[in-house]
Amino acid sequence: MAVDEANIVSLVADGLEYGGWKSVRISAGIERQARDFELGITWRWPGSGAAPARIRQGSRCEVRIGADLVLTGYVYAAPVSYDARQITVSVAGRSLTSDLIDCSAARGQWRGQSIATIVTALAAPYGLSVVDQSGDGLTVADHQTEPNETVFRSIDRLLEMSALLSTDDEYGRVVIARLGSAGTATDALQLGVNVLSASAPLDFSGVFSSYECIGQRAGTDDSFGADAAEVRGEATDDRVGRYRNLTVQPSGQVSPAMAARRASWERESRMAKALQTTYEVQGWRQSDGRLWRANSFVRVRDSMIGFDRDMLVGEVEYSLDDQGMKTRLTVAPPGAYSPQPKAPKKSKGRGDSFEYLLPKDWEKS
Question: pLDDT: is 347 or 3 the higher one?
Answer without folding.
Answer: 3
